[in-house]
């Protein structure tokens, strides 16, 4: 739902203290913690800021949740950190946030890396996962193993289950479990995660789209629309990667990102 653009101080981690600034946005149900390994590698050459988007990780919860407010959150973060020429990297939902941010604030970024998502509508496909997360009785839960066993009914991939259950935390005061996710709002507004971008216009700054060879998120027929909006975009395929490009092929991912950032591109007006 669209709300006001109130202050949202996002949680972040910084890795590296020199070089160009990179800001990384995770996907749905994710957090900055998912990017620790990649951020450490990139941090050898860049200042890397991995951010928890609203209603995720350690960032504040809000009843407002759509790409307009998340784009405004990112602009506020960049302003707070005095990052006027950052490279923005976003995976899946984070890629859509990055693209909406680029549309809304064309002068506030230098380059964009969009990981395995296109600027189009995607139908809801997280209903089963949300059913499983909502079915967990946190009051009765004693161990993470119990949570994973319960989630097996809803998600058969062990890596995905572990990824989802990283959102569980143990409350030091009560000893019980809680969600870092704002599960009620994500459940209510999950349809907005697949929504198209709004206020589209042509941006000529350099953009890199990375897709996994085993993923169906960016199809050949999507390339025309991508290049219509981002005429200086490059679309590269990382072999052997699913939708989770950065996790499946981290070395290839880091190389593609590094090569793109270090290129000298002239005439990059927004």
Characterization of the model:
The chain has two domains: 12-122 and 195-262, Alpha/Beta hydrolase fold, catalytic domain (Rossmann fold, 3-Layer(aba) Sandwich); 127-190, no CATH class. The protein is of the alpha/beta class. The two termini are 28 Å apart. Helix 2 packs across helix 3. The strands form two sheets. Strands 1-3-2-4-5-8-9 form a seven-stranded mixed β-sheet, with helices on both faces. A two-stranded antiparallel ribbon has the order 6-7. It has helices spanning 36-42, 67-80, 93-104, 127-135, 144-151, 158-165, 183-188, 190-193, 223-229, 245-248, 250-262, and strands at 12-15, 21-25, 47-51, 87-91, 111-115, 168-170, 177-179, 207-212, 233-238. 34% of the residues lie in helices and 16% in strands. The protein has eleven helices and nine strands.
Top CATH class of the largest domain: Alpha Beta
- Provide the CATH superfamily of the largest domain: Alpha/Beta hydrolase fold, catalytic domain
State mean pLDDT (0 to 100 scale).
93
Globular, elongated, flat, extended or rod-shaped: what is the shape?
globular
Number of helices: 11
User: How many separate domains make up the residues?
Assistant: 2
Order of helices and strands: EEHEHEHEHHHEEHHEHEHH
* Largest beta-sheet characterization: 7 strands, mixed
Low-pLDDT windows of residues:
1-5, 265-270
Strand and helix map with partners:
Elements: E1 12-15, E2 21-25, H1 36-42, E3 47-51, H2 67-80, E4 87-91, H3 93-104, E5 111-115, H4 127-135, H5 144-151, H6 158-165, E6 168-170, E7 177-179, H7 183-188, H8 190-193, E8 207-212, H9 223-229, E9 233-238, H10 245-248, H11 250-262
Parallel strand pairs: 2-3, 2-4, 4-5, 5-8, 8-9
Antiparallel strand pairs: 1-3, 6-7
């Amino acid at each position: 739902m669209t709300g006001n653009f109130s202050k949202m101080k996002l949680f972040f981690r910084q890795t590296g203290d020199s070089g160009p600034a990179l800001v990384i946005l995770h996907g749905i149900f994710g957090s900055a913690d998912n990017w620790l390994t990649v951020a450490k590698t990139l941090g050898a050459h860049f200042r890397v800021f991995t951010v928890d988007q609203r209603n995720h990780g350690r960032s504040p919860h809000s009843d407002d949740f759509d790409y307009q407010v998340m784009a405004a959150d990112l602009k506020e973060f960049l302003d707070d950190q005095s990052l006027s020429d950052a490279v923005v990297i976003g995976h899946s939902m984070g890629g859509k946030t990055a693209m909406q941010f680029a549309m809304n604030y064309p002068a506030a970024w230098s380059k964009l890396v969009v990981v395995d998502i296109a600027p189009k509508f995607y139908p809801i496909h997280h209903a089963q996962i949300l059913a499983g997360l909502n079915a967990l009785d946190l009051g009765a839960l004693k161990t993470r193993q119990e949570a994973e066993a319960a989630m097996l009914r809803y998600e058969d991939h062990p890596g995905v289950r572990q990824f989802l259950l990283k959102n569980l935390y143990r409350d030091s005061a009560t000893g019980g479990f809680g969600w870092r996710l704002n599960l009620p709002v994500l459940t209510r507004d999950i349809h907005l995660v697949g929504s198209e971008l709004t206020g589209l216009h042509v941006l000529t700054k350099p953009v890199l789209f990375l897709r996994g060879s085993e993923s169906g998120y960016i199809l050949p027929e999507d390339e025309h629309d991508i290049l219509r909006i981002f005429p200086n975009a490059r679309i590269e395929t990382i072999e052997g990667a699913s939708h989770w490009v950065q996790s499946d092929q981290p070395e290839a991912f880091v190389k593609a990102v590094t090569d793109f950032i270090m290129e000298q591109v002239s005439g990059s007006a927004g």
